[in-house]
Amino acid sequence: MARRLRLRDMIGILVAGFTILFAILANGGSATPSVEDYYNSLESRLGHWLLLGNGLVVEGVDLTARHVCEAQRTIRQNGLEGQVTVRLGDYHDLPSTQYRNGSFDGVYTMETFVHADDPRKVLRNFHRLLRPGGVLVLHEADVRWDSEGLNEVLWLSHCQNTLKEGSYKQLLHETGFGEISLEDYSHNVLPLWRLFGVLRAIPYALLRLLGLQARFPNVMAGVETYRHWDQGRYVSVRAVKV
């Protein structure tokens, strides 16, 4: 029994230590993170590995210069220079000299639109870029109600403008989109968030004890999102430019 207990304790310590190390690597330690800080996190950088394309001409925009350099290097390494382009830019400001009206068949975001300072302006930009009949797909979150814990997580993750449940359809209609559909994928992503919530629970408790939880928003978001799972959804939104 003593041996089993020691082994279990050691495993727990190793898991906690690894999670704290991951949290330190994934976050710069800023108490007031900007959207640039958030996208400099380790897990956010991993998203660039998915930018491979499949018979499509893909143009990406990123707010962080380092991400653009990494993406451009990946594009060169995979011989995709004629197929994939990534530029430094902000989806709030997409000048027509670089992004012509009606020049895109589709626009896609994943866990990006929730960071918008002005969601309406961003949707107008997307609408301008799409050709008539072009499709917008957003894989994002919406929330059902407010709580102190949820609001703190959203603020620290620069997601304070995450839309309330039901707001996507209204906002898309107001910005010129039609044929709007929404699918709730919360059940699909719950296993991953459960893993985040369980693995980071002990490090998060220690950080809270030390009053440092605000400096590690990725740890906090993993635990608090799982604890407040019934207050939000992970949704896939599809709309067509009419």
TrEMBL record:
It comes from the Eukaryota. Keywords: Transferase. It holds the Pfam family Methyltransf_11. Residues 54-138 form the Methyltransferase type domain. The keyword Transferase applies. The keyword Transferase applies. InterPro entries: Erg6_SMT_methyltransf, Methyltransf_11, SAM-dependent_MTases_sf. One of its GO terms (molecular function) is S-adenosylmethionine-dependent methyltransferase activity. PANTHER family: GERANYL DIPHOSPHATE 2-C-METHYLTRANSFERASE, ZGC:194242. This is Methyltransferase type 11 domain-containing protein. The lineage of its organism: Eukaryota, Fungi, Dikarya, Ascomycota, Pezizomycotina.
